[in-house]
Amino acid sequence: MIRKEPDDFFSDVRPLADFRGLIVNGRFDREMYEDAAQIAKVYGVNIGLILKKREKYQQEVEDAQCALNTCDLENVVERRKAFKRRNKAKAALHWYEERSRQEMRNMIHLVRKWAERKSANACDWLAALYAITCKGSKSTGSIVFYAFPQELVNMIAERTGGRPVTVAVPDLVNGDVYIDEDGNVYLVEEVDDGQGQLVERGTFLMQVRRDGELIYDHGRTRRMHPVEFESARAEVRDGSLSFPALSRDPWFRSQRWTK
Question: What integer pLDDT is reported at residue 219 of this predicted model?
């Protein structure tokens, strides 16, 4: 007789709190904990909103398909309306799937930029962030993989007796970047409009002010030397960007642009 536990092992998903002892070497104080809690809340709320919106579009597709399936085959007018509703719902879902992927990339980028500023004691920040994610009943823990992937892999390997491996770095962006006369910087990409045509889409990256202040879309700021610029378009290759009018500033010229 085969016991039921093997089936439970493969089908039952344990809450993340059951694995809170996985990360044990880091040390953090209340200030670090509250800082990590803030980024975790921003990430969790926004990911939740993205998923809820997608469920709404998906439900509309299912409802439209159900209405089409139950439509009288002899009623040509009603079936035409049902087909139109179903196709419209599918197009809307496809549009939002493309948009949600960009929204997800933006959130991941926000988390990574936050983690970059914690590199001096990354393992301690990882411990704080992991402690917070383990408290959430619906948390998947994905934020810790985006924030501190290498430190997490190293700690898991140490804890389990495995061999640490180098985590692959994200792909660098290739494309066009456009800066308007107000200093707003956009990444310009070609995307499918859902009807087989490629259209240009601009994603806001930051605003550059002439006094040298950089303002990112999530409100974080950074200073560089004062610059003069004009509306222009430039290419990004292998993550490196250079605007002719900004080429005198070494920090701006050396930035690595990633998704």
Answer: 61
* DSSP conformation letters of 41-76: HHHHHHHHHHHHHHHHHHHHHHHHHHHHHTS-TT-H
Task: Say what the pLDDT of residue 15 is.
Answer: 56
Residues 145 and 29 in one domain: yes
Nearest partner of 207 among 190, 224, 189, judged by Cα: 224
One domain, residues 149 and 81:
yes
Q: Give how far Cα 247 sits from Cα of 204, 226, 251, 254, Å.
A: 21, 12, 9, 10
DSSP 124-145: HHHHHHHHHHTT-TT---HHHH
Residue 186 in contact with residue 177, Cβ under 8 Å?
yes
How far is it, in rounded angstroms, from Cα 122 to Cα 124? Answer: 5
Q: Does any domain span residue 5?
A: no
Shared domain check, 195 and 82? no
Q: Count of domains in the chain?
A: 2
Tell me if 258 sits within 8 A of 239, measured CB to CB: yes
Domain enclosing residue 210, as ranges? 175-253
CA atoms of 98 and 104, how far apart (whole Å): 10
pTM: 0.55
Do 234 and 149 share a structural domain? Answer: no
pLDDT of 14: 57
Average pLDDT for runs of 10 along the chain of length 259: 46 56 78 90 88 93 92 88 93 91 86 87 89 77 86 81 67 64 78 75 78 70 71 62 48 46
CB 151 within 8 A of CB 126: yes
The reply to whether 151 and 27 lie within a common domain is: yes
